[in-house]
Amino acid sequence: xxxxxxxxxxxxHFTVYxxxxxxxxxxxxxxFVPDENWSMICVSIGTGGVTSALVGYxxxxxxxxxxxxxxxxxxxxxxxxxxxxxxxxxxDVFFILVFHYNELEKTKCYSISLNNFKEKFPLKFExxxxxxxxxxxxxxxxKTNEEKHYKYLCSKNVLQNTRFxxxxxxxxxxxxIAQDLYNLTDYxxxxxxxLMTTIYMYINNTGFNNFEDYFYVFNLLxxxxxxxxxxxxxIDNIKYYYEYEKVNEIKQNNIQWxxxxxxxxxxxxxxxxx
Length: 274
Fold this sequence. Notes:
Blueprint: E1 5-6, E2 9-10, H1 11-28, H2 36-99, E3 109-113, H3 114-132, E4 135-138, E5 141-144, H4 146-158, H5 160-177, H6 190-204, H7 211-221, H8 224-229, E6 239-243, E7 247-252, E8 255-256, E9 271-273
Parallel strand pairs: 3-9
Antiparallel strand pairs: 1-2, 3-6, 4-5, 6-7, 7-8
Helix pairs in contact: 1-2, 2-5, 3-4, 3-7, 5-6
């Protein structure tokens, strides 16, 4: 929800309460009016107004908290699937780089921020895809490089794990925009619903036929406009660690995202920053 709040409630409601409160305080000062009847009427209205403003504020505050609790509950499964997706995609990319393209050594532990990941790897995978379909002359024929094409197909197969995670996220978004639980559009702004609908439609209409599709969806799902909705904003500086058969995790502010255990706190471990 958009942050248009003051002291925990909407700016519009807060403005109404503060105006009512100030006017009521002014009426209470009418106790000094010489006319006893008018003084009593104004003071009565003033004290009632102060009470109403305070009661209204606290009721609004309670309702706001209930709204946030329901919103948080509706996003709980989304957040779980989201973290698993980020974990899976980054792991799959490293696995491909290590085992299919020999771009990294499997004996080393690597670390990279999500922001650097988005900047460095899309171009590298674009190059892999181009090479897989680049025609070369072989004696009297022209054909693709079989070795590079095979690596490309194997890499795409690895990314099926990521595709499964993406579809899980799409299912979570569908529940929200379809109001399957708690009449959820009462707890999300129209702009938020519109954004989630756009992402859902894109995922459903994407065939994931190439590396570009995966990286484009990754950019969509890690954009601050979405991460802010699900309460994981900002995430660009989270650290991902990869070490074959030992470490597969994401950390942000020393909070571990991964379901895997690790020994990354071992000061003797050599971690190569990418």
